[in-house]
Amino acid sequence: MLMKMNTGHPSFMQDEFRAGITACLPTIPGYWSIGFAAGAIGTLSDFTPWQIALLATALYAGSAQFLFYSLWAAGAEMASVVLSVLLVNLRYLLMSSAISGFFRDYSTLQKVVSGLLLTDETFGVAVQRGGPQGKISFSWMLGLNVAAWLNWIIACVIGAGLATTLPASLMEGLGFSLVAMFIGLILMMWFASQRKALETLNIVTALAITLFSAGSSSLSIVVIVAASVAATLTTCLLRTRAQKGK
Q1: 49: how many CB neighbours lie within 10 A of its CB?
Q2: Could you give phi then psi for residue 204, rounded to 5 degrees?
């Protein structure tokens, strides 16, 4: 059963679902601004609104959609497009692994549903929610994910319709909101963290590796390697502290 929970009362699940939607509200302006830009770029790349809506529904990754439209407009081969999108989205493996502990009590189907709709933004909100308790109810996670997913689709479709009416300079400015929202999420998690020293080390390590390695390989690969090394380092330090504390 999809809604299998330790506390399976319908009213509890409804309350948790609504709470998940509420938790998503602060990120929705970011989804809309980025979605407008993604939809507009899709239109400029000769995709129809229906095609843009389908891509937003199925791919559901802002950076991957920007990359897809750019490569498609440049005439890249399909194999190259698929591989590039795959590399960009590999970060979700790290995110899913980082919060997998919150989903121990989920059924297999619930884990699949939660993972398929995970984004950078819902990851950040989920970490804040699950950190103190070590778990998240499926109903809450579903409300968070569905609210984000639907708003992303709507924003992309509206952006596609507005592409021919808004100035190009405005659309370029909206594209930067993707970076701005990522920075905001990182700062939000840092201020909420009880291990600010480790969080700071993680961020500094990832930035240093990215800056010194940016010209040596594809930026997507560099970012993945930097995040993996930083996460591994801080995880090892955290375990070392825990062992010393025993």
Answers
A1: 17
A2: -65, -40
Taking the complete model, does pTM exceed 0.85, yes or no? Answer: no
DSSP symbol at 101: G
Scan for tokens 């699949």, then name that residue. 112
List pLDDT tens digits, range 134-169: 788 999 999 999 999 999 999 999 988 887 776 666
Q: How many CA atoms lie within 13 A of 83 on its CB side?
A: 7
Burial state string for 158-168 with b = 16 or more CB within 10 A and e = fewer than 16: bbbeebeeeee
DSSP string, 163-204: TTTS-HHHHHHHHTHHHHHHHHHHHHHHHH-S-HHHHHHHHH
Q: 3-class SS at 105?
A: coil
DSSP-assigned letter for residue 215: T
**Which among 210, 188, 212 has a CA at the least distance from the CA of 199?**
188
Cα-flanking dihedrals φ and ψ of residue 193, to 5°?
-75, 150
In angstroms, the CA 166 to CA 192 distance is 38
CA dihedral of residues 233, 234, 235, 241 (deg, nearest 10)? 110
How far is 233 from 109, CA to CA, in rounded Å?
A: 32
Domain parsing of the chain, residue ranges: 10-174, 193-246
Residue with tokens 């062992």: 243
